[in-house]
Amino acid sequence: MGTTTPIATTRSVTGMPTGRLAVWWVIGSEIVIFGGLLMCYLMLRLKFPHWALNSSHTNTFAGGVNTFVLLTSSLSIVLAHYYAERKEELKAFGLIWATIFGGLCFLVIKGIEWTTEIQNGFTITSSLFWSFYYTAAGLHALHVIAGMCLMGWISIDVLQKKNMHRVELIGIYWHFVDLVWIFLFPLLYIAK
Amino acid sequence: MAEYVAHSHDEHKDADGHGPSFYIKIWAILLVLFAISVIGPEFGHRTVTLITAFGIALVKAYMVAVNFMHIKHERKYIPYIMFAMLGMVFLFYIAVSTDVQATSGTNWENAAAKAIIEENKDFEHHLEH
């Protein structure tokens, strides 16, 4: 029982693998979560133009480097999927860990950035802008951590040539995490 | 025991059939767009900022969704679900923004918001010029 393939992995009532449908379903809910948060930010940002003063204290360089890191990690996970399809498990494994490393770099940069901001007196309670900043970036960082953990778990299976389709599933999720950052970056770092 | 689900990948192979060089090319284009989105707002022109920062973000999002997430090759209802979710988000914005962005309306007034705007009037004046 414990070693058999879960029914959901092979069943395809909807015309596509259930696992992939589930990932898209998760992404659909995430669109509403992040979309709602960003729309609230946008409404208040338009209402209070002086928020530009607060956003001028965010570190554009750190945000830019993190954009580069996430875009590059998106490339490594799509390549991991490519090699997983060809059952080249060592290449797929290496690329999954390159993506995890990208996530780690992102978190380290984010940690340095937040430490500097907190030391400068910009905390989550400083103003409504900073509340949004830490909530949106923090929620996104939690998604990065979740993605890294899942990739670590999937990489073990990949080495054993098991559940190779999961590389594609985690890839779709990771690209979504990248997509969210693509919108967070101009909103929090560029619009000053 | 768990096996590689071949049919899901065959669908993708037929649909895109791209190799690593294609993905590297997309990544390079994304980096160029990213550079433009950082440089554009440096000109300090509102329209240029909107186009380069936010317009390009939309282009980048489209490129990631199509080329990396392969959304075009999914069943048709997947993009429909995603657009429906985005539609919900915009509906939310349209429904509440008129009240949230105002400081007063029929039988109500947001005194705290008015006070904040009043306090920062100098900055708004500075922005206009």
Question: Could you describe the 3D structure shown?
Answer:
- The complex is a heterodimer of chains A (192) and B (129).
- Chain A contains seven helices and no strands.
- The longest helix of chain A has 32 residues, at 128-159.
- The model of chain A has no long low-confidence stretch (mean pLDDT 92).
- Chain A has 192 residues and is mainly α.
- Chain A is elongated, with a radius of gyration of 19 Å.
- Chain A has one domain: Cytochrome c oxidase, subunit III, four-helix bundle (Four Helix Bundle (Hemerythrin (Met), subunit A)), CATH 1.20.120.
- In chain A, 80% of the residues lie in helices and 0% in strands.
- In chain A, helix 2 (18-47) runs parallel beside helix 7, helix 4 runs antiparallel to helix 5 and helix 4 (60-85) runs antiparallel to helix 7.
- Chain B has 129 residues and is mainly α.
- Chain B folds into two domains: 1-74, no CATH class; 76-129, no CATH class.
- Helices cover 73% and strands 3% of the residues of chain B.
- A two-stranded antiparallel sheet of chain B has the order 1-2.
- In chain B, strand 1 and strand 2 (108-109) form a beta hairpin.
- The N and C termini of chain B lie far apart (68 Å).
- The chains are: A mainly alpha (192), B mainly alpha (129).
- Chains A and B meet through helix 2, helix 4 and helix 7 of A and helix 1, helix 2, helix 3, helix 4 and helix 5 of B.
Question: What is the compact description of this entry?
Answer:
Chain A has 7 helices and no strands. With about 190 residues, chain A is mainly alpha-helical.
- Cα-based radius of gyration of chain B, to the nearest Å: 23 Å
Give helix and strand order of chain A, one letter per element, not per position: HHHHHHH
Major sheet: arrangement of strands of chain B: 1-2
**Average predicted local confidence, pLDDT of chain B:** 84
Low-confidence stretches of chain B: 1-15
So what's the oligomer here?
heterodimer
Number of DSSP helical runs of chain A: 7
Number of domains of chain A: 1
Percent strand of chain B equals under 5%
